[in-house]
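User: two proteins, same treatment. go.

Assistant:
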Amino acid sequence: MAALFNFTQDSLIHPLRQNFLLGLLTLLVGGLPYYAFSADHSTQKNITIKGQIKLSSGTETSPEGLDVVLLKFVLSPEGAVTPVGPQDRIKTKTDGSFEFVNVKQDLRAGYQLGTRVKGELYSSKIFFVKSGETLIETDIIIPGISNAVEELETSQVSLVIESGLGTVTVTEVLVLSNSSPDRIDTRTRPLTQNLPEGIENFRMMDSESTDAMKHQLEDNILKIEHVFPTGTSQIIYQYILPAWFGSLEINREFDHALDKVSVFTPIDRLQIKSDELIFSGKQSLHETTFLSWKRKASDSNRLKFTISNVPETSLQYAGVSGIILVLLFGTVALFYRQRLTKKNENKIAAS
């Protein structure tokens, strides 16, 4: 289900590409010999790339002596981003500054700078060389850590509802945006989500933020403890809700505007009805056609909708039959008890 959204929403595609580039940096930063970059540039048109590693306030480390790697990428004939390999590696000076000289100019390529601070990888934005340029300046920003959980904004919520036997499975995809310059630590002030009551079999699923992520579920309150990076993060979790006699009602409360919420369900299976949702069409994802709904314009932060056409189980009817039998036997027993009591009273009155 995670892949379903990773390849269909632009907001989730960017982190994948970023992880690919950072994965490449993992192999390069701190692990390449200095002599690997020796080359004769005397006959080539060269440029200089310089910048500085800038530490945010509260970052407890020194900018001096950090390895900085210059990476190069080109597009293959098929349009895929292909790493050419590291072009150079140097160490930062006392103030965190660095300078690459004699870099061969390639107008078709993209470049990126990367470094590692306390085991974490950081990189600059990808940049390109323009014709005639001889100097490019770009920095690597090392974010600090903040406890300002309110800066972590929910930019999108997708609820994917699938049918089971007497149950529905709900997969929630949260896209969170951190536009601050710092990473946001929710380990002392957890990020909370109000889930529907009566959920069963809750589990976290794959996402780019699952490393070292902790969570607690108390009643229907989900608490997430994690250090969220700058930019966008994705969280995916799943739970089951029981349905009785083919239907159930979901009440979901959010702490943000409901125009960010979308509901999806496979076509020709479940039926969704709500005065607060409007049908927004069909969407084909990974050979499955989904029906989608959007929230109507409203100031309310509560979403209520009814799900019907859920496959029913014979156990539910067996339970009802059992209750009917118990009531029937109870009624019969009460009838005979009252009859016996009346008969005894008549005997006492006759004597």
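Protein 2:
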Amino acid sequence: MNNIRKLLYIISLLTLTLLLFTGCSFTPEDTPERTFIISGKFTKNGIAGSGDVFFKLANKGNYSRSPEGPNRVITYESYSIEGELQDNGLTIKLKGSYDPFEMQYTVSADTSTLRYVINGFLNSNGNFKEATATVLVKTGDNWPVLDFSVASETVTITGTAIDSDNIGIPDFALGLWRRNSSFFFSGLTYIVSPFSYILNETISYDDYVDYYTFYQTIVKVVDKTGYYDFIVAYSVGATTKYEKYKVEFSKGNSRMIIVSYLNGNKLDFNTIAAAEATTSLDTNPFRIQTLSR
């Protein structure tokens, strides 16, 4: 965990009590849903293999592939995304979520040995602005992270699209999660897909505002009955690090509580096995993240 990430967690301590008393939340009526269709490609290399990978996606219910008609992916919340990705002979369904405030999105899909994540921004007109593709290739017991730049391009998707092989974050957890405060810590949002999420934090003090964005890929989700454990991966240069979280849902799955597992005094692990083995939860109540729809 680098110093910036530590600072963000420390700052969040000062706001949780206020949030618990104010009960900050939001509803889908706070922002309009966007209409968009975007497509693009990236060229993979290294252990991810070689060749171009194509994708096409849109906001919920707006994705279709001619001449076969609509190809719907069922989700349960507003601000959801659906689409498809084609990698050589593999065509797989994408799904995820977007933030209509930041015009930002994340989608994902996976097989038993490959995981695909696309994180991107839309411009003010709902068109492609920029994006990054992340591919994870199962290597032994770990999932190293490889990032590739994405180019906007009109694409044609062929082949029969399959569903993801593994079970990621449950469908009811997809969507946009948010915590707001009128205090100097201005906001915290999660944009969630089955195998990824984007964490955005905004810190404002005096007349200055800092924005931080973290892209996390989910490599394992375990249903513990009453809560979920999940492990995320992210790259630090050429190294992949892992973090483990306990996630609980309440109030009809409209509230999400996230608690970190600790690796001694740190939050990151060098291997998935080390993350899985830990049972030590961060018990500091000010660092527990509580978000609402």
